[in-house]
UniProtKB/TrEMBL annotation:
Signal peptide: 1-21
Active site per UniProt: D113 (nucleophile), D176 (proton donor)
InterPro entries in the cross-refs: 6-hairpin_glycosidase_sf (IPR008928), 6hp_glycosidase-like_sf (IPR012341), Glyco_hydro_88 (IPR010905), UG_Glycosaminoglycan_Hydrolase (IPR052369)
Keywords, ordered alphabetically: Hydrolase, Signal
Protein name: Glucuronyl hydrolase
GO molecular function annotation: chondroitin hydrolase activity
Keyword Acyltransferase: no
Protein family (similarity comment): Belongs to the glycosyl hydrolase 88 family.
Taxon lineage: Bacteria, Pseudomonadati, Bacteroidota, Sphingobacteriia, Sphingobacteriales
Binding-site residues for substrate, renumbered to this chain: D113, D176, G234, T236, R248, W252
GO biological process, one term: polysaccharide catabolic process
Listed SUPFAM superfamilies: Six-hairpin glycosidases
Amino acid sequence: MRYTAFAITTLLFFFGRPASAQINAARQLAYCTEQVKKTLRIIPRHGNNIPRSIVPGSSEWKFVGYKDWCSGFWPGILWYSYEATKSKTFLAEAAAFSSALKPLSAQHAFDHDLGFQIFNSYGNGYRLTKNPKYKAIILKTADTLATLFNPKVGTILSWPREVPGMQWPQHNTIIDNMINLELLFWASRNGGEKRLYDIAFSHAEVTMKNHFRPDYSAYHAVIYDRETGKKIKGLTHQGYADNSMWARGQSWAIYGYTVCFRETGNAAFLEFAQKVSDVYLAKLPADGIPYWDFNDPSIPNAPKDASAAAVVASGLLELSTFVKDKAKSQKYRKAAELMLTSLSSSAYQSRNKNSAFLLHSTGHKPNGSEIDTSIIYADYYYIEALLRLEKLQKGMKLN
Ligand code: GLY
């Protein structure tokens, strides 16, 4: 039923309106960079000053320090703002905010989030400036992340620490970890060791085998026996239930397997990226923005998650460039455009309410934290998706 609603809305949206009604990526990018300027005007210039989220009804950012898993998104947004505008101010701010994260490359890995942190900040910085100091930091961080790999299991230990409320004596891997593989793939083709590629490849393959239900929806976490490598069970930490489809978890799978295909050329990853996308698209509400968990029984009164929509939109735009079947490729491109159109409407953009780009993301519902808020990673993937869409609209390649 819901799939039918999504398909009909998509058809009406794209074929029932003139072409000029389609999203103007350049205009939405201009909106984003104006919001960034507003944040730069209010950000404190000392201490823990990396924006993370804004609660509904407020315009005040909650700021965090460099160790927070979200620390790379704000510098990443500044790099994307520089890419969109070529403004020297954004360049200087991007470099300054990235520099706060440098210690992460040199200390013990305390979780898998190093890719989110260092690749979104320094990774984008190196892509745009080719500064060799940035490259050295990225390579060092990749080696740090690799220390969490358990060869008996074949995956990275995502949380090598106590997780509040979760007693997991064994090896845990979370679906979010898929995003941090890009750092390893990149490092192995930019001067790092070949084993970094092998670790990322193994993680993606083992996860593909163990982390999904028969309908291709993802568990949030899988627990393995750290000695035998055997899967013990799949469960959730941030989703509604162990067997539910947590929207952002599925978004990490869609984005992650698309990157794995780009980096390896392995056809199994491309096929899998489509499978995990198709189950998500089939169950979406008509506006293309998911509820925080597809199985929350309080739907349609459950909170939405704009961040998952932004991640998926960005991932699907890239996936659409890899899929050879024209109809399927168009399906992914159009679905991403619908998501970006909804996100760019007054229902989802923050506009004068606060200086983030978007409203209505859900961070950790079971913990009661960051529910229906502006969250920095929604903004990061939104601006990334708009830049990708702009390139595609101009007939340019994404990478
Ligand atoms: N990586 C944590 C999250 O998706 O909330």
